């Protein structure tokens, strides 16, 4: 009994609420970069994108999940629908929405583009995947590429004529980029001969454009060991030579059978097996990792948005199912002679739905805040504003990447659970989204790595300045919430919790300064979870404030605002009280799993 | 890079520890029913079963996951390996291991059989599934069937000549058995004409035995509405008539595409489409649900054991992977010129492994305690001992069913995560076990239903007597732990936590007595989670006591015992402190999701 109402992917009302009531997206147009824009141009983009996402992209999801790419005759053949879908995305201006006019872009705020991307990812994350990877590769070339690379490679990527990939991971190194071994040998003509092997390269080959450019990490002969000897290269599958494209000796050695993201191939890629693979240096020698990491915030925010999207589409599916599926009766009315009630009437089903809502909409709000800081960091005229926004963006990124991956996975599991036995069947969609979501805790830096990044780098950076900025932003939200008449107990809990974060971080930072780095970082996973609860509480407090403001205006959609207040209440009751215990584990450096020898397992 | 060492499925050392050091399984032989047995006969069974599980059953897992049953010409064709595996199980005596001599059984303790079943389920849960369902059906016939049914149906099930199913769920009713509609019309010769439709019937058809018997809930014409009008029938696919088997008009209408348990078909079953389906009443008219529920503890404990098994095999796979996979270096040694370390050296990987160990071994200990109470409830000579054990078994069952399903799922996700990008590929096994595990929160009563069962029935039953018995058992374990020299802070935490459970349950029970049933049950999911943490803490305290006793004996395997103490430490540090917050949610009947109207979502 699939639901009859079409899945909205994301609530339009919530998108508008987050952009214009929680944030003031129209206010972004006061920045010179966005001065040609207005709420109207934002909505024009969003309307086009959401219509395309719902009417064209979403119907492709099940088909592409069922028919993954095939590998034959050395080439990857993706679902034939991609030949229609990718040009559609390009035509809507997705690839260059946020890029400057000088490269043909619409120069829209990242915040607005983020909302657009949620509709598309929720509709079919694999379709979006090709675009996201291409944007990442093109953006690197835009920032660090030579004029020739910008003209020959970047422009074609932005025009949708070629696609791009990010080729970092190697079989023997995994997350440990210091151990990258792919070699680059200068040829003498300014290019390099590339040889080596990469794994888990998404979109490494396809058959809907004529070429693919791999932004590849490699080590120039004689470079220092570790992360300081890695350079970045643009390595196309077919290279321009004498006015045409010739084979560049980049071979797909195999397609990995992923459990989700089925529309997007993930490949093992061999460079230079025939000794004839050329790469072009992007940026400076040995600065490859630094260049790549300059784009990392954006890449990780895309993963976070993906997590939100994948949880959102499943939440809406579960909500429609719960409204339509009759089964049993409420606790109060057990009389079997009465008709069955829709399962949304059962308290425990409602708990599962409200938890999903809290994760999805809290996660979206967090991701849009990170996007907002990215816009300020790139485009605020005031240097101090840019600096602060950059620090806050750095701080929020590991949280914004991980929260939707981890709690989104839980939300996706709940969406399946709401469907009961039907949820366990592949005739219903929730199980597919559950498979999709699982990747987000792994790619672009595992959850473990994000925890180390947050605690080992971000919160202690610049003498803890990022954390101070975060605390100031939270304090401003508390002030807004108090003014709007939000429940005082939530405001007080927010303040108390921020005090806990501050004290805890100071304690852990002192451990690190005293050389007890292992103890400091032992519970980085718990610290990250704690920080996620707090960051999302901040976003729920902001949403509660905006909801109270809306109710005070006497706006028509009371139901929407009341729902927001229930979800905020849920977060402050169910999640925020977990903070002291998580803090205790970090503070005491509880030692069960480091005391445990490998041979004791 | 799959691990080279074979997966042990379950640690033999842990199996022996749980049976003979935490519990005193040999002591069960003092009960008259088990007087012919000894540790030697227990170990004979376990040795045979674990060898068969490892050498014969486990190699079938991947094959059966990849090639699920097909449905053609109205029949289900299962994996051909089943023709060899099922007779193997029968030959080992699995089907009648716990059954009395009078039906050809070995009359072994359920506790010992539970350990045996963990090896088999961990090896291939679908293979075990056919046996488990057959045992359930046969056991119902043994308990309530007429002599004719016992001879004609039960004996063939126990001999492995036929298989059985449990046919409860209907498409329009789901978990709401009060809404069962399948009809039974007396024919006059003692049989009934059955008509109706069932869904999610596991093992409803196969092609490795000649017949399948469906233990079917149906409503005799004129029976009262609701649960008091449901009777139990034995309905074979082919019925005995004139000395041979003839078609009994039971049709498989389709096979559901489940996401896991791929070796075991789940079907839609239509009865009496041609008006010629006969059923035999089992037990009394209108007492079908009561009869079925008399077997429900056993069925739910089997689900719990399955959850433990599925988490166990994945934990061992992750452990071997973490020991073998080199990647990166520890926090203390970042020098990239050094060789990479196995990932088990990373604190966060060790956290993920210890959490899995705590869930798997804590869960096993809980399930064996439930099995132990089942043995006492059935076989203790003293009526008072039987009564107490029965009440404790009833109380523990929803917890023992749910904990491995919910936390086991988390453990399975961690096993995948330990494998990094490889874990996201179907060339590695963890993703398959993750799919398998997800069913356990749904079948045999969803997690939501288990919460209502625990809080709405079990802890308040007999004036709270079951809870008092539970508290006495925990107190006895605390005394044992203190005597053994277990950390006093764990003992004190256990006592404090039990006080919390007692007070909370009293408060909630009073709400119920005051007519506030909805408030009382609102947080039944949180109550169940709280109770699970406490019950598993009890089992970790018992394991810590046994480990201390082992260390005091100067036993050789110090490593094993030290590992147990680390896992106990982890549980008391990471999980037990969550109890006060969960209790607060229950006690205050926090109302976010009941306040939330259906239209506010």
UniProtKB/TrEMBL annotation, chains A, B:
The keyword Transferase does not apply. InterPro entries: Acyl-CoA_dh-like_C_dom (IPR025878), Acyl-CoA_Oxase/DH_mid-dom (IPR006091), Acyl-CoA_Oxase/DH_mid-dom_sf (IPR046373), AcylCo_DH-like_C (IPR036250), AcylCo_DH/oxidase_C (IPR009075), AcylCoA_DH/ox_N (IPR013786), AcylCoA_DH/ox_N_sf (IPR037069), AcylCoA_DH/oxidase_NM_dom_sf (IPR009100). Residues 470-596 form the Acetyl-CoA dehydrogenase-like C-terminal domain. Residues 166-269 form the Acyl-CoA oxidase/dehydrogenase middle domain. Residues 286-452 form the Acyl-CoA dehydrogenase/oxidase C-terminal domain. One of its GO terms (molecular function) is flavin adenine dinucleotide binding. Signal peptide: none annotated. Keywords: FAD, Flavoprotein, Oxidoreductase. Its cofactor is FAD. Residues 41-161 form the Acyl-CoA dehydrogenase/oxidase N-terminal domain. Belongs to the acyl-CoA dehydrogenase family. This is 3-methylmercaptopropionyl-CoA dehydrogenase (DmdC). The lineage of its organism: Bacteria, Pseudomonadati, Myxococcota, Myxococcia, Myxococcales.
């Amino acid at each position: 009994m699939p639901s009859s109402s079409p899945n909205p992917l994301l609530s339009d009302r919530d998108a508008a609420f987050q952009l214009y009531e929680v944030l003031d997206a129209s206010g972004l147009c006061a920045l010179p970069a966005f001065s040609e824009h207005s709420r109207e141009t934002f909505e024009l983009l969003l309307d086009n994108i959401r219509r395309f996402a719902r009417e064209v992209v979403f119907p492709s999801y099940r088909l592409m999940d069922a028919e993954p790419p095939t590998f034959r005759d050395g080439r990857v053949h993706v679902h034939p629908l991609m030949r229609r879908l990718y040009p559609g995305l390009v035509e809507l201006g997705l690839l260059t929405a946020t890029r400057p006019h000088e490269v043909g872009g619409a120069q829209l705020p990242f915040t607005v583009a983020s909302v657009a991307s949620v509709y598309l990812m929720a509709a079919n994350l694999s379709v979006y995947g090709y675009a996201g990877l291409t944007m990442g590769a093109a953006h690197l070339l835009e920032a660090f590429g030579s004029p020739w690379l910008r003209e020959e490679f970047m422009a074609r990527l932005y025009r949708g004529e070629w696609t791009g990939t990010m080729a970092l991971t190697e079989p023997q190194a995994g997350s440990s980029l210091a151990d990258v071994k792919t070699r680059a040998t200068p040829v003498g003509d300014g290019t390099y001969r590339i040889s080596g092997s990469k794994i888990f390269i998404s979109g490494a080959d396809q058959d809907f454009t004529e070429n693919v450019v791999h932004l590849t990490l490699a080590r120039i002969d004689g470079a220092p060991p570790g992360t300081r000897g890695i350079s970045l290269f643009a390595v196309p599958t077919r290279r321009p030579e004498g006015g045409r494209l010739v084979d560049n000796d980049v071979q797909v050695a195999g397609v990995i059978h992923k459990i989700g993201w089925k529309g997007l191939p993930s490949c093992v890629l061999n460079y230079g097996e025939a000794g004839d693979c050329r790469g072009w240096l992007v940026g400076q020698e040995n600065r490859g990792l630094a260049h790549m990491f300059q784009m990392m915030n954006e890449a990780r925010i895309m993963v976070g948005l993906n997590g939100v999207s994948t949880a959102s589409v499943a939440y809406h599916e579960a909500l429609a199912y719960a409204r339509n599926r009759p089964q049993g009766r409420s606790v109060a009315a057990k009389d079997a002679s009465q008709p069955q009630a829709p399962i949304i009437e059962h308290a425990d089903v409602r708990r599962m739905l409200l938890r999903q809502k809290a994760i999805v909409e809290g996660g979206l709000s967090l991701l849009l805040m990170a996007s907002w800081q990215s816009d300020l960091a790139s485009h605020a005229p005031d240097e101090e504003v840019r600096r602060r926004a950059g620090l806050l963006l750095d701080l929020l990124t590991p949280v914004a990447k991980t929260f939707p991956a981890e709690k989104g996975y839980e939300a996706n599991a709940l969406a399946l659970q709401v469907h009961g036995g039907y949820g366990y069947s592949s005739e219903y969609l929730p199980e597919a989204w559950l498979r999709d979501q699982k990747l987000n805790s792994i790619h672009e830096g595992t959850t473990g790595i994000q925890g180390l990044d947050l605690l080992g780098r971000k919160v202690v950076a610049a003498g803890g300045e990022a954390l101070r900025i975060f605390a100031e932003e939270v304090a401003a939200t508390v002030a807004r919430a108090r003014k709007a008449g939000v429940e005082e107990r939530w405001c007080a809990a927010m303040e108390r919790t921020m005090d806990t974060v501050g004290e805890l971080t100071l304690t852990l930072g002192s451990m690190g300064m005293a050389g007890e780095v292992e103890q400091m970082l032992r519970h980085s996973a718990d610290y990250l979870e704690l920080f996620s609860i707090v960051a999302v509480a901040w976003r729920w407090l902001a949403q509660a404030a905006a909801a109270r403001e809306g109710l005070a205006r006497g706006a028509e959609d009371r139901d929407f605002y009341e729902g927001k207040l229930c979800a905020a209440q849920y977060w402050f009751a169910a999640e925020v009280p977990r903070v002291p215990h998580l803090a205790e584990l970090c503070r005491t450096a509880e030692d069960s799993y480091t005391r445990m020898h490998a041979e004791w397992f």
